[in-house]
Amino acid sequence: MKDKNEPITGDEFVIRLVWTKFFDAEQSPPVLPRTFVPRSNERDGVSVFRLACVLQPEDVLRVLAIEKRPLYGIVLLKVADLNLLGMSVVPSPIEGIAGHAVIPELNVTAFVANRNYWKAVAKDLARLAAGNIVRAPELD
Amino acid sequence: MWNTLEPEIVARLPRPADANQAASEAGGTTLANDVVKWKTTIDKLLEIRLLEYDFDGQGSLAPPDGLVDSAMILAIMLRQLGARAPDWTIATLNESVLLQWDWPSGASLEVEVLQPNLAEVFVHEPGKTGESFTIHGTADSLAAISAVR
């Protein structure tokens, strides 16, 4: 395990939580690109967690209320792949879970300013994430 | 009603024939199944209309009722225009409703209802820059759905 203060390296993976309605095992890819569109409150970039900073990926579900946890899946993205797409990962500490970070380039302001570009990027990310599904949502 | 579905947009709508092609490639949708899928689409829109604040556990607002009604009218209109049923029908986490169609080639078409009677169409093929169009409706669409309730 890495300490949250260690630099983020290209060989690391980051975790993104996938809302249940954005996951459908019968689709190809099963992860909807919308998973990587910033929420209106993701002004500093979409939220991710460093896999290297948690014991197991499911640990990051603690950010959610217990009853909501089954409604989320978990996918991984390699930092090097994000770098190739022109994005970075920077620490953004939160209480309770080590390794929280954001992808600053993929923020709501940038998305609104250039929706076509970022929607295409989101499709690339969904394709990459589909190859690294840790768990599907347990409930629909 | 949604009143500016230009012919060039209508021409790009996914057809049931596309689904047949996909079915032959992947063993999935057929023309008959499309009827069922459209019913599922409408059912999902009705479910979206019941969403409440914090439905996702991260504080998201549900799409406003008027927007969902508008999405429903648009979906019905797309069906009447011969489009195949969308592969995804969801409430986004940004107070909008998304209908999305995918092709085995990786191409996709999104219709995102952003406001009542305002939707953005996004067409994307792998390796190409996406294109987007805006389509508009009028308050008549809301009157129409009120009439069928």
How much of the sequence of chain B is in beta strands?
A: 15-25%
Number of domains of chain B: 1
For the largest interface, the chains and their residue counts are: A-B, 26 and 29 residues
Number of helices of chain B: 5
Rounded to the nearest angstrom, the radius of gyration of chain B is 15 Å
Helix-and-strand structural type of chain B: alpha+beta
Q: Main beta sheet of chain B, described?
A: 5 strands, antiparallel
Low-confidence stretches of chain B: 144-149
Order of helices and strands of chain B: HHHHEEEEEH
- Average pLDDT level of chain A: 96
What is the number of beta strands of chain B? 5
The level of helicity of chain A is 10-25%
- What's the overall average pLDDT of chain B, rounded? 84
Quaternary state of the chains = heterodimer
Indicate the low-confidence ranges of chain A by residue numbers: none
Shape of chain A: globular
- Give the SSE order of chain A as H and E letters: EEEHEEHHE
Q: What is the radius of gyration of chain A? A: 14 Å
Mind explaining what this structure looks like?
- The complex is a heterodimer of chains A (140) and B (149).
- Chain A has 140 residues and is of the alpha+beta class.
- Chain A is 20% helix and 20% strand.
- Chain A has 3 helices and 6 strands; from the N terminus they run E-E-E-H-E-E-H-H-E.
- The longest helix of chain A has 16 residues, at 115-130.
- Chain A is globular and about 35 Å long.
- Chain B is α+β, with helices and mostly antiparallel strands.
- Helix content of chain B is 40%, strand content 21%.
- A 5-stranded antiparallel beta sheet of chain B has the order 1-2-3-4-5.
- In chain B, a hairpin with a 5-residue loop joins strand 2 (97-102) and strand 3 (108-115).
- In chain B, helix 3 packs antiparallel against helix 4 and helix 4 crosses helix 5.
- Residues 144-149 of chain B have low confidence and may be disordered.
- Chain A binds chain B through residues 19, 21-22, 24, 27-28, 32-34, 37, 39-41, 64-65, 67-68, 71-72, 115-117, 119-120, 123, 127, and chain B through 26, 56-60, 87-88, 90-95, 98, 100, 102, 104, 106, 108, 110, 120, 122, 124, 126, 129-132.
